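[09:14] KT: can someone run the structure on this one? pasting the chain below
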Amino acid sequence: MLKICQTPLPQSLLSYVAFRVAFCETFERLCFHRVHASALPDAYGYLGEVPFLREVPAQVQLDLLASTWQKHLSRDVHPADLVDESVVYAVCEAAARLVEQDPEVFAKHMRGGPLELAVPVDAYLSRELRLLYLEMPNDGDFLLISQFLDLPPDESVQQKLEMGVDPKRLGSMFDVLGRWHTSPHMLTRLKGLLTEAELGRVASMVPSPCPA
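[09:31] RB: done, C-alpha coordinates below
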Protein backbone atom coordinates (compact mmCIF):
# COMPACT_ATOMS: atom_id res chain seq x y z
CA MET A 1 0.00 0.00 0.00
CA LEU A 2 1.02 3.59 -0.56
CA LYS A 3 1.08 5.80 2.52
CA ILE A 4 0.97 9.59 2.39
CA CYS A 5 1.92 11.05 5.77
CA GLN A 6 1.26 7.65 7.39
CA THR A 7 -2.24 7.40 5.90
CA PRO A 8 -2.88 4.72 3.23
CA LEU A 9 -4.26 5.87 -0.10
CA PRO A 10 -7.63 4.06 -0.29
CA GLN A 11 -7.50 1.03 -2.58
CA SER A 12 -10.86 1.78 -4.13
CA LEU A 13 -12.60 1.83 -7.48
CA LEU A 14 -12.14 5.58 -7.43
CA SER A 15 -8.35 5.29 -7.31
CA TYR A 16 -8.51 2.79 -10.19
CA VAL A 17 -10.57 5.28 -12.19
CA ALA A 18 -8.16 8.17 -11.54
CA PHE A 19 -5.02 6.22 -12.43
CA ARG A 20 -6.54 4.53 -15.48
CA VAL A 21 -8.05 7.64 -17.03
CA ALA A 22 -4.90 9.70 -16.46
CA PHE A 23 -2.76 6.98 -18.02
CA CYS A 24 -5.01 6.42 -21.02
CA GLU A 25 -5.42 10.13 -21.75
CA THR A 26 -1.66 10.76 -21.55
CA PHE A 27 -0.92 7.70 -23.67
CA GLU A 28 -3.42 8.72 -26.36
CA ARG A 29 -1.93 12.20 -26.44
CA LEU A 30 1.57 10.72 -26.72
CA CYS A 31 0.47 8.61 -29.68
CA PHE A 32 -1.17 11.60 -31.35
CA HIS A 33 1.89 13.77 -30.71
CA ARG A 34 4.18 11.26 -32.39
CA VAL A 35 2.01 11.17 -35.50
CA HIS A 36 1.39 14.94 -35.56
CA ALA A 37 4.57 16.26 -33.96
CA SER A 38 3.59 19.93 -34.16
CA ALA A 39 -0.02 19.53 -33.08
CA LEU A 40 0.55 19.54 -29.31
CA PRO A 41 2.85 21.47 -26.97
CA ASP A 42 5.65 19.63 -25.21
CA ALA A 43 3.69 19.51 -21.95
CA TYR A 44 0.58 17.45 -22.54
CA GLY A 45 0.58 14.71 -19.92
CA TYR A 46 -1.27 14.42 -16.62
CA LEU A 47 1.76 15.77 -14.72
CA GLY A 48 1.05 19.14 -16.28
CA GLU A 49 -1.07 19.57 -13.14
CA VAL A 50 2.19 19.94 -11.18
CA PRO A 51 4.08 23.00 -12.50
CA PHE A 52 7.54 21.72 -11.51
CA LEU A 53 7.04 18.45 -13.44
CA ARG A 54 5.21 19.89 -16.44
CA GLU A 55 8.14 19.35 -18.81
CA VAL A 56 8.77 15.70 -17.86
CA PRO A 57 8.51 13.66 -21.11
CA ALA A 58 5.16 11.92 -21.53
CA GLN A 59 6.68 8.44 -21.62
CA VAL A 60 8.40 9.12 -18.29
CA GLN A 61 5.13 10.44 -16.87
CA LEU A 62 3.55 7.10 -17.78
CA ASP A 63 6.42 5.24 -16.13
CA LEU A 64 6.08 7.27 -12.94
CA LEU A 65 2.35 6.55 -12.88
CA ALA A 66 3.05 2.84 -13.25
CA SER A 67 5.55 2.90 -10.36
CA THR A 68 3.15 4.72 -8.03
CA TRP A 69 0.29 2.43 -9.08
CA GLN A 70 2.34 -0.65 -8.20
CA LYS A 71 3.14 0.77 -4.75
CA HIS A 72 -0.55 1.53 -4.30
CA LEU A 73 -1.54 -2.10 -5.00
CA SER A 74 1.34 -3.70 -3.12
CA ARG A 75 0.78 -5.63 0.10
CA ASP A 76 3.94 -4.04 1.43
CA VAL A 77 3.92 -0.54 2.89
CA HIS A 78 5.51 2.13 0.69
CA PRO A 79 5.89 5.62 2.20
CA ALA A 80 5.17 8.11 -0.57
CA ASP A 81 7.95 10.43 -1.69
CA LEU A 82 7.17 13.77 -3.33
CA VAL A 83 7.04 12.17 -6.77
CA ASP A 84 4.40 9.70 -5.59
CA GLU A 85 2.42 12.53 -4.01
CA SER A 86 2.70 14.49 -7.25
CA VAL A 87 1.44 11.53 -9.27
CA VAL A 88 -1.55 10.92 -6.99
CA TYR A 89 -2.52 14.59 -6.99
CA ALA A 90 -2.08 14.86 -10.76
CA VAL A 91 -4.06 11.75 -11.72
CA CYS A 92 -6.95 12.85 -9.52
CA GLU A 93 -6.94 16.40 -10.85
CA ALA A 94 -6.44 15.36 -14.49
CA ALA A 95 -9.25 12.80 -14.32
CA ALA A 96 -11.59 15.28 -12.60
CA ARG A 97 -10.80 17.94 -15.20
CA LEU A 98 -11.53 15.50 -18.02
CA VAL A 99 -14.93 14.69 -16.48
CA GLU A 100 -15.75 18.40 -16.61
CA GLN A 101 -14.28 19.22 -20.00
CA ASP A 102 -14.80 16.08 -22.10
CA PRO A 103 -16.99 13.46 -20.40
CA GLU A 104 -17.26 11.38 -23.59
CA VAL A 105 -13.49 10.92 -23.74
CA PHE A 106 -13.46 10.12 -20.02
CA ALA A 107 -16.10 7.42 -20.58
CA LYS A 108 -14.11 6.03 -23.52
CA HIS A 109 -11.02 5.57 -21.36
CA MET A 110 -13.09 3.70 -18.78
CA ARG A 111 -14.41 1.18 -21.27
CA GLY A 112 -12.63 -2.09 -22.00
CA GLY A 113 -10.39 -2.08 -18.95
CA PRO A 114 -9.72 -4.84 -16.42
CA LEU A 115 -12.74 -3.60 -14.45
CA GLU A 116 -16.07 -2.86 -16.12
CA LEU A 117 -17.60 0.07 -14.29
CA ALA A 118 -20.86 1.85 -14.89
CA VAL A 119 -20.41 5.18 -13.13
CA PRO A 120 -22.24 8.42 -13.95
CA VAL A 121 -19.76 10.86 -15.48
CA ASP A 122 -20.96 13.98 -13.75
CA ALA A 123 -20.06 16.77 -11.33
CA TYR A 124 -20.32 14.39 -8.37
CA LEU A 125 -17.66 12.13 -9.89
CA SER A 126 -15.26 15.01 -10.54
CA ARG A 127 -15.73 16.15 -6.94
CA GLU A 128 -15.05 12.66 -5.57
CA LEU A 129 -11.93 12.30 -7.71
CA ARG A 130 -10.49 15.50 -6.28
CA LEU A 131 -11.45 14.58 -2.73
CA LEU A 132 -9.58 11.28 -3.08
CA TYR A 133 -6.38 13.28 -2.83
CA LEU A 134 -7.49 16.39 -1.00
CA GLU A 135 -8.72 14.35 1.97
CA MET A 136 -5.26 12.82 2.43
CA PRO A 137 -3.08 14.49 5.08
CA ASN A 138 -0.34 16.20 3.08
CA ASP A 139 1.40 19.55 2.81
CA GLY A 140 1.37 19.83 -1.00
CA ASP A 141 5.10 20.64 -0.98
CA PHE A 142 5.43 19.49 -4.60
CA LEU A 143 3.26 22.44 -5.65
CA LEU A 144 5.61 24.93 -3.96
CA ILE A 145 8.93 23.87 -5.49
CA SER A 146 8.66 26.09 -8.57
CA GLN A 147 8.75 29.15 -6.32
CA PHE A 148 12.35 28.38 -5.31
CA LEU A 149 13.94 27.88 -8.74
CA ASP A 150 14.98 31.50 -9.34
CA LEU A 151 16.38 32.07 -5.84
CA PRO A 152 20.09 31.91 -4.91
CA PRO A 153 20.90 28.57 -3.18
CA ASP A 154 21.27 29.98 0.36
CA GLU A 155 18.10 32.06 0.10
CA SER A 156 16.27 29.10 -1.46
CA VAL A 157 17.16 26.80 1.47
CA GLN A 158 16.14 29.43 4.00
CA GLN A 159 12.79 30.03 2.32
CA LYS A 160 12.10 26.30 2.11
CA LEU A 161 12.70 25.96 5.83
CA GLU A 162 10.50 28.95 6.59
CA MET A 163 7.68 27.40 4.54
CA GLY A 164 8.10 24.01 6.22
CA VAL A 165 9.49 22.28 3.12
CA ASP A 166 12.16 19.68 3.92
CA PRO A 167 14.98 20.20 1.36
CA LYS A 168 15.98 16.54 1.74
CA ARG A 169 12.66 15.43 0.21
CA LEU A 170 13.20 17.40 -2.97
CA GLY A 171 15.90 15.16 -4.44
CA SER A 172 13.46 12.74 -6.05
CA MET A 173 11.70 15.61 -7.82
CA PHE A 174 14.92 16.91 -9.38
CA ASP A 175 15.95 13.37 -10.37
CA VAL A 176 12.77 13.02 -12.43
CA LEU A 177 13.64 16.08 -14.51
CA GLY A 178 16.73 14.34 -15.84
CA ARG A 179 14.92 11.24 -17.09
CA TRP A 180 14.00 10.51 -20.68
CA HIS A 181 13.58 6.74 -20.88
CA THR A 182 11.10 4.43 -19.18
CA SER A 183 12.17 1.68 -16.81
CA PRO A 184 12.34 -2.01 -17.85
CA HIS A 185 9.52 -2.83 -15.42
CA MET A 186 6.88 -0.35 -16.55
CA LEU A 187 4.56 -2.87 -18.21
CA THR A 188 4.69 -5.26 -15.25
CA ARG A 189 3.77 -2.41 -12.91
CA LEU A 190 0.66 -1.62 -14.96
CA LYS A 191 -1.00 -4.96 -14.26
CA GLY A 192 -4.48 -4.43 -12.92
CA LEU A 193 -4.76 -1.06 -14.64
CA LEU A 194 -4.62 -2.16 -18.29
CA THR A 195 -5.68 -5.30 -20.14
CA GLU A 196 -3.16 -7.55 -21.88
CA ALA A 197 -4.20 -6.09 -25.24
CA GLU A 198 -3.70 -2.56 -23.95
CA LEU A 199 -0.30 -3.49 -22.51
CA GLY A 200 0.69 -4.79 -25.94
CA ARG A 201 -0.21 -1.47 -27.50
CA VAL A 202 1.77 0.42 -24.90
CA ALA A 203 4.77 -1.85 -25.48
CA SER A 204 4.68 -1.15 -29.21
CA MET A 205 4.48 2.61 -28.75
CA VAL A 206 6.67 3.05 -25.64
CA PRO A 207 9.38 0.37 -25.80
CA SER A 208 11.13 -0.19 -22.50
CA PRO A 209 14.83 -1.04 -22.14
CA CYS A 210 15.62 -4.65 -21.35
CA PRO A 211 16.29 -5.46 -17.69
CA ALA A 212 19.99 -5.54 -16.85
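[09:33] KT: thanks! Confidence is low (pLDDT under 50) at residues 150-163.
[09:34] RB: yep, looked fine to me
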